[in-house]
Amino acid sequence: MKITVLTLFPEMFENFLNTSIVGRSLQRGLAEVEFVQIRDFAPGNYKHVDDTPFGGGSGMVMKCQPVLDALNSVKTENSYTLLTSPAGKPYNQQKARELCKKDHLIILCGHYEGMDARINDHVDELVSIGDYVLTGGELASMVIIDSVVRLLKGAIRDTSTDEESHENGLLEYPQYTHPADYNGEKVPEVLLSGNHAKIREWRVMQSLKLTKELRPDLYEKHEFTDEEKKILKKYDL
Ligand code: 6GU
User: Fold this and answer.
1) CA dihedral 153, 94, 165, 107 (to 10 degrees)
2) Whether 96 and 8 share a structural domain
3) CATH number, domain at 188?
4) C-alpha 130 to ligand 1 mean position (Å)
5) Ligand 1 centroid to 140 CA: how many Å?
6) Are residues 131 and 98 in the same domain?
């Protein structure tokens, strides 16, 4: 997969792209990330990429010309284009699963107080990573890249994404490692039992219980499997 990031601040990505799972995956060639400096497409000596908003108001707005010339310099019929925006569609694990199948992902990082709205019609979708405001789309773009690259075949062990939070619409069950007794705080007995059926049941029960408590919004939408229904009944959740 190829990922092209259009930004005014490519240097923000440096450590991120060289570290941990993402760094290793890029080194192994599972994905390639390239940058396009939007400012390179601004004319003249001043290289202005933004201007004052029509109708007045505070702040500056990014101009169509440098942004769309930058975008058109890399777009092909194989590209899927995202614009990061606090007004975008909420990003989630399902979207990450969709994006990891694309050949060429282009992420246009919104910046300053806003973008000329005519830019919206030149991308496939606007995405937001949550209900808060960032100064720019670079952090959002890194969130998207991280969540997509780790899903590429060979990035991590195939099985390790299956039971994660959000993969099945629920939060993950709690995990523990050695020691079994940490200053009197004990690991749940069932996990030491070696009884795999019991352990599985406990994990599903915990996953359901935690999701109901902490994320009633997810719990409400969840379509319960037969196994989950049985466990809900048994534990009176
Ligand atoms: Cl994608 N961009 C910006 N600037 N702020 C955000 C966001 C994106 N998602 C949440 N807040």
Assistant:
1) 70
2) yes
3) 1.10.1270.20
4) 7
5) 6
6) yes
